[in-house]
Every structure is written in C-alpha cells, then in structure tokens.
Prior knowledge:
The complex is a heterotrimer of chains A (248), B (266) and C (254). Chain A has 248 residues and is mainly α. Chain A is 75% helix and 2% strand. Chain A is globular. Chain A starts with a helix and ends in a 7-residue tail after the last helix. Chain B has a single domain, classed as MetI-like (MetI-like fold, Orthogonal Bundle), CATH 1.10.3720.10. Chain B contains 9 helices and 2 strands. In chain B, helix 2 runs parallel beside helix 9 and helix 3 crosses helix 5. Chain B starts with 12 loop residues before the first helix and ends with a helix. In chain C, the strands form 2 sheets. A 6-stranded mixed beta sheet of chain C has the order 6-7-8-3-9-10, sandwiched between helices. Chain C has a 4-stranded antiparallel beta sheet with strand order 2-1-4-5, covered by helices on one side. Chain C is globular. Chains in contact: A-B, A-C. Chains A and C meet through helix 6 and helix 7 of A and helix 3, strand 6, helix 4 and helix 6 of C.
Amino acid sequence: MLDLIAPFFERLNDTTGLNFSPFYDSYDWGRLLEGMWVSIKLITAIIAVSLVIGVVGAGAQTSRVRPVRWLVAAYIEVFRNTPPIVQLLFFYFGLGAITPQVDMGGWYEPMIGSFGWAVIAIGIFGGSYNVEIFRSGIEAVPDSTKEAAESLGFSQFKIFVYITLPLAVRICLPALTNNIVSLAKTSSLAYVIAVPEITYSLSGIWSDSVNVPEMMVLLFLYYIVLVAIIARIMSVIEHRLALPGYGQ
Amino acid sequence: MIPNWKVSRVTWRAPVLAAGLCLAAALAATAQDGGAARPSALASLVIWMPFILKGFGLNLLMSVLAMGFATVMGVILGFMQISPVALIRVPARLVTHLFRNSPWLVILFAIMLLVPFQMTLPGVGRVMIPDWVKATFGFALPVMANISEILRGAVLSIPSGQWESAESLAFTRGQTLRHVILPQCIRRMLPPWMNWYALLTLMTPMAAILGVDEALGNTQAAMEAAGARPEFLIPFYLFLMTIFFVFIYPLSVYTRRLEKRFAVAS
Amino acid sequence: MIMSPTETWSPAQPIVSLHGVHKSFGTFEVLKGIDIDVMKGEVVCIIGPSGSGKSTLIRTINGLTPVSKGSVKVEGIEVHDAGLDKLALRRKVGIVFQQYNLFPHRTVLQNVMMAPLLVLKENRKEVEARARALLEKVKLRDKEEAYPAELSGGQQQRVAIARSLCMRPDVMLFDEVTAALDPETVKEVLVTIKDLAGDGMTCMLVTHEMGFAREISDRVYFTDAGRIVESGPPSQIFDKPQDPRTREFLSKVL
C-alpha cells in the first residue's frame, strides 16, 4: 500500500513542499495507522461503557429506593456540569495515584493504564447523557402497552426486557446517535493523558516533521469521515429497527 | 452536540449530594497526610485558591467573548445556509458541517498552531495576538457552526403559511425574515443557545494544553509550586470541578426550566 | 398446612364474585360497594353512563386496579390478597382493552405467542399451533406476519382477543373493546366475541353497544355513579326497566 503511494507524495513534497510524511515515510505511516487503530478501539470501548451505564442508570432511576435515585441524579448533574477534561485528569491522575499497582515480575505497572482511564472517564461522562436519553425513551412507552403485558402475566422484569426496552430504544435512537457522534469526537480528549490515538500520534508527527497544516488536514478529514461512518451505521440500525406503519 | 432532553427532575438533592461527595473525598485526601510537619493538602489548597479562581476569571472571559463571537457569526452563517443563492448556501453548509463534526480539541489545535502569534495591521503596525485570544477564537468556531445549524432548523420549523401570508402582504424576503420569522425563532433557539454556552464554558479548560493560564493551567501550576505531592491531586482537581459546577449548574437548571415552559407553551 | 383457596372452589360456585367493592382515587370514590356474581359460562354485560366506574370495575377483576375495600374472587382466589400469585390469576383471566395495546414491535403471530412462550414457558411448537388456530378463528391467518400498525383497528382488536385466548383463560374481560373502532369494523369484533360466548367462555363486557348487549348477555348490570342501580336478564333491563335512572339512560342511548 505504502509502496504504491509513496512516490507520488515524495514528489509532492519535493515540488510543492506539501509534506504528507505518513504517506511516504514508513515510520510515520506506522504512527498514522496505529493512531487510527487506537482511536477506533477507544471510541468503541467508550461507546460500549456509556451505553451500559445509560441502560443501568435509567433502570436505577426507576428504583423504589430513594437514595439510589438521588445517587443517579447526582451522578448526572456532576458529570454534565463539570469540564470533561478535568474529569479525565481527575480520574487519571487523582484516582490513578491511589489504584493498586500490579506486579509484572520485577517491575510494577498501574492496574489501569491511560487507555483504560480514558475509556472509564469519557465513558462515564457520556453515560451521564445516555441515562437521560434512555429515561426519556422509557417514559415515552405507553403505560397501556405495559399494562397489556402485565395482564398477560409478564413479570416487571420481563416487561422491561421484552416490551419497554425494545420500544424505548427505537424511540431514543435519534438522540442516541447524536450522543454517540459527540462521544466519538470527545475521544480526542484522551490526548491529554497521552493515549496514542489519532490526535496524539499526528501531533507526534507534526512536531517531528514540522508539517502542521498537512497533518491538520488529515486530522479533520479523519473525524469527518468517522462521523459520516457512525451516522451511516446508526441510520442503518434505525432502518433495520423501523416497524412497518409504526410512528408515521 | 447536546440533544434536547425532556426536563429531568431538578432537585436540591443532586447538588447537595455532589457537595457531600466532594467534601468526603477532600477529607479522605487530607487524612492520608498522617500529621506530617508539611502543610496538609487542604491547607495548601486554601493558600492557592485565589490563584486558581483568578484563572477561572479568564475561563469566564473566554467563554463570554467566544459566545458573543459565535452568536454573531453563527446567525450570519445560519442565514447564509438558507439563502436561495447556491453560491452563498453551499460554502456556508460546508463551513457549518466542518466545524460541527470536528472535535473541540482538533479545532483548538488548528487555530493555535496555524494562526500566527503576531499580525501586521495597516496603520497600527505589529500586533501580538495573545494565546488566550486565539483559544477564544478556537472555542467560538464549533459553537458558531452549531448556532448556525440551530438557526437553520428553527427557521425551517416555522410553518410555510407564515411565509405565504407575509409574501401576500408584499413583504420582501428580508423583511419577512426580520419581522415575521426571526421573532418566532428566538424563543425556540434560547434553550439550545444556553446549553451551548454551558458546554463552551466546560470546554475552556482545554486551553491549558496550549499554555493559557486559566483555571486548569493555574491548578496544575499551583500543585507544582506547592510541592507536587500526589495527595494534592484529588482535592485540587475536585476544587476545580466544584468551581465549574457552582457556575454551570444553576445555568443548566434555568435552561431546563425554560425548555419546560416552552414545551408546555407550544 | 393451609389449603389453597383454589381447591375449595367448585364449578357450582360463582367463577367471579365481587362483594362490597369500593375504590377511591384520592378523595374521589369511583366504586361505592359493588356486588356481582358470575357463573361459569355466563355472559355478563355492564352498561351505564360514562364515568360511572365501569372500566375501573372490570379492571379490579384481574388486579390491574387494586380495590380500596371489599373482596374480588376469581375461582375462589382472593385477587386483592397481598400474597396473591399474580401469574396464577392472569392465566385464568384474560382482558381486552379499548386501545388494543398490541406490542408494536412484534408481528401478529409473535404477539399471540409471546405470553405462553415467555410467561408459561410452554413448548414452542404447541404454542405456535394454538396461535395459528386462534388466528384462524378470528379470521386473520393471512396477517400473521404483519405488524400491528399495518392492520385496521378491528383487525388489531381481533389479534388482541386471540392474544388473550392463547393463555387459555377461564374468564374473558372486555373493556369497551369497540369504542375506539370505526363503525364498519365494529361488527367483525362483535362477531368474534359472540363466537367465543357461543363456545361457552365466561365473558364480562363493558360496552356501549346496547343491541349487542341485549343479544349476547345472560345478565345485564346497569351502573351509575359507582353503584349497581339495577340488574337482570336483558329482556327485563331493556324492556321493563324499573329504576328511573335506567329508563333515562336507555332513552338517551337507544
């Protein structure tokens, strides 16, 4: 792949001074690929964590135990009303300092690395939005439908799993898409704790090769394509889940 | 971007619980000191509080300036997006799309690294552009794009009957927008506009990455100056989060009230 | 050992029995002492002006609305007992609602099969055969792969009836099941209910269809303001009403 495009970009650099070093220099090429791969892993993990938190949190908000509901409410307010970058630093440096170290046979490594903390911190941040999204979806499921299930002998748990959740997911899918896209962009924050995702690896390239504008173009391009792909995936899901004649 | 939530239950319990958690964590951190001769983490924090708060002043300044700029530019861009002239509409769409779909951090990097630190203005001579001004500009761009999109959505949501009746009264397109459409849009736009202000303010600490001495930068500098002890980390960062929370939480409560009132009214 | 109440019940006793049932929502008393006994195989209609508590009354029978005072028994089981086995009750009592309340994300066949599979954990093949037979009975075999939103109101209501029947209940409750339907689809639903009554199913209906009530009922209850004003065979209620309130109501609706 690199052999194929390298001559063109090398000539581009020589003739115009446009230095797309990852496209002819194998070391920078490796950094670019690694950055994209880590970025995609990071985004996937963040989205997964935030979705789990969203479902569990929305369920907990319907709890009969008051302190549980307060705790969820406090969680939402804290994470939505404080800066995400400080949250991330708090988790990585603050909590990272007091998490135990793992004996790796002679040397010690923190139990959770920077990638792990980025997933936890940004996932929890995104989850605070997802709780509200799922809750509004759950509230939009008509009581009468749940009542019908109750009359057929469904337990409360079965009503939630088989009736409420499938309908709520369909109702809140557009809002969920927005938040997932937003989380994918927020993943770039992991730069500040040196997770080698795309922003971090490209910044490494531009400080070595002094080609900021060119790398900036790549970075913008990466995120625009990424957002387009996520939007496409979500619209396919929305299409798949659409029910004939329902909600029109 | 921020989806529009239904109003969640706003209670006094959430902030009280949050404050309680902060306090507990701060106490826990203090307890780690074990009565050494050095000043406790909490005592150090108290000494450095004014310095951190001074930094927060810059966050507020950046957020207000950026919001003002973003609002003006966003409204202009939004009107360009609904222009019947493709030459105006298409570039406006592209700019909106670009800045809506890129991360804050990436836009901030682009501005900080690509905009020169000094400019030669005709008649004035060389002018230095401080980093915080550039950062302000960087924060304004994504908000601008989103305000542009909010305006477009709001204008499109006005029923076509309004346009038709204004046209039949011989209003020009500009007059219709100015006197009929825009007044109806403002109410719809106010809650999302406020949401974007809150989000913008929460993003301003990113300027610390590029060396702007705002609250986060000052917090890190303060921890360094006080001896860079690990037990500083939790109370100092918690204090920083608390400052933002105290400023933003009432704002978001108020925004949700507005949303609720408008939702009932329409 | 305490004997299960079910074992004390014999078919010679009323299958559904309400005694002194009161229900209040806040300070508003909707039911002010209702007594009804229904024998196995009987068809009972409850008529009366809007807001007289008919729907609340029928919803107390499968425990959807808890009563404030009094006793509701189905096959000898006290419905409003704190230790009630809800599943046991709901196997015995099926209910069909005014708004059909089908599950919009499942096909017609899945709607009918869902409860027996998930709740009773019955064998899929048997349930499927039973569901198909029921859809045949409500004349919707050809719609089994359709989603509820693709059907007319009358068709949805017949699916709802089949869905309830697939649990093999002993008693069927119908809560104004034709009130939300277009006039042209009312009849197909009424025919379905009539077939069901003809098969010997115990049915309790809240209805505004007076002609139908007269034709199908063994017994009619007229309720007003939370009380049973008058009850008897349809010929008596419709032709020789005793109470002036019954006469006034019937003169308005007939």
